[in-house]
């Protein structure tokens, strides 16, 4: 017997924002074509190294998720934004990451940081002087053993009280797409 939801699920609408120079031209066109006509979205996922540099916008949103670290590679920053958005609006399995996970990180931490490279994340976590409070980690693992090993290595660098959510994403470059919260 197949069960179908009794309530039709609505599509989550997420806007992306980053300094214009970071975006490949084709990607900007794709993103702009996905914006609803009324300018209202469920969330804005933005990456601006300096909070003051966030552009003014007419987009109305319930949730603003701001990544504030300076990425080593701006192109990978835009790829992280797209990867997270696709995980949130897609139906890939496991479907265990939700916009609520990012809201929780935002409420628990003072800043959110983004990483699109596994060695860069490990380096940051090992040298971090700030309190790590949680993270959403999307791993690009082809096998269960690799996924388990990498998630265990990352978990070991967080305190036992941290809010961690692990999932997979076939688009996660260099092994992962991660958003972590610090206080």
Automatic annotation (TrEMBL):
It comes from the Bacteria. The lineage of its organism: Bacteria, Pseudomonadati, Pseudomonadota, Gammaproteobacteria, Vibrionales. This is Uncharacterized protein. It comes from Photobacterium rosenbergii.
